[in-house]
Amino acid sequence: MASRRTAPDPLARQVAFGLSTVGLALRADAWRTGSARSLTPTQGRILAILASRAGPMRPGALAASLAVSAPTASDAIRSLEEKGLVRRASDADDGRATAVHLTDAGAAAVAAWDRGPAFVLEAVRALTTSERGALVRALAKVLLTLADRGEIPSARTCGSCVFFAPHAHRRRGVAPHHCRFLDEPLAETDVRLDCPDHEPASPTVVREALAAWSKV
Fold first, then answer.
1. By three-state DSSP, how is residue 150 classified?
2. CA gap 137, 115 in Å, rounded
């Protein structure tokens, strides 16, 4: 018996096409920008991840964050180490393991590499504040859904964090959510897609938060 296929959603296809097109543009820009600094997109992302985490990471964790194989991450780390942008040292929590640290030169490189393509920033600035907030929330929900399905590494968004309470302040309108880490209300424009203070919640809590977050 043939399985029933989900009917195509024209609007969803348009959104997917738009995201794919932006992704292609970002990928092409990453190659252009990285080539000028002798960095591949993977190497640039490693620097950006280390900078955003504000601390060292094990090679395996970096590979998982990038959704690449361990050998691919190892090659990129070795190249960055040769350029003096990262260094390896014993992990503070386990002396038998190795952690990758961002050097001062690496921090300077990522500051220049990861500012974001000007053409994308200009396009986003053309949106109103409410449109930006809605876009951030929509992107966070897409990332959470993809992570829940195993399509991408775990998303470090507010919605997958133990500190996030969606719609905790329904009467406040402007800042409906709450961050328990900061103990402050969060507006839609305050929602983070990659937070350095992120603490992953259990899959069950993430799905419950996503369901609550979707009730607008």
1. coil
2. 21
Q: What is the pTM of this model?
A: 0.61
Q: Quick check: helix, strand or coil at residue 208?
A: helix
CA dist 124 and 138 (Å) reads 14
How buried is 173 (Cβ within 10 angstroms: 0-12 exposed, 13-18 middle, 19+ buried)? exposed
Q: Label the pairing between strands 98-102 and 86-90.
A: antiparallel
Relative to beta strand 177-179, strand 86-90 is unpaired
Compute CA 43 distance to the chain's CA centroid, rounded to the nearest angstrom.
Answer: 16
Given the structure tokens 């990285």, which residue do they identify? 34
Per residue in 30-62, pLDDT tens?
Answer: 666 665 567 888 888 888 888 877 678 889 888
- The 10 Å Cβ neighbour count of residue 73 is 21
In three-state secondary structure terms, 216 is coil
Q: CB-hemisphere CA count at 13 Å for 75?
A: 8
User: Can you list the pairs that 60-64 forms with residues at least 24 positions away whose Cβ atoms lie under 8 Å?
Assistant: 62/100, 64/153, 64/154
Secondary structure E strands in the chain: 86-90, 98-102, 164-165, 177-179, 184-186
Amino acid at 134: A
- 115-164 pLDDT, tens digit each: 556 778 788 888 888 888 888 888 888 888 888 787 777 677 888 888 98
Q: What single string gives the DSSP state of each residue in 32-85?
A: HHHHHTT--HHHHHHHHHHHHHTS-B-HHHHHHHHT--HHHHHHHHHHHHHTTS
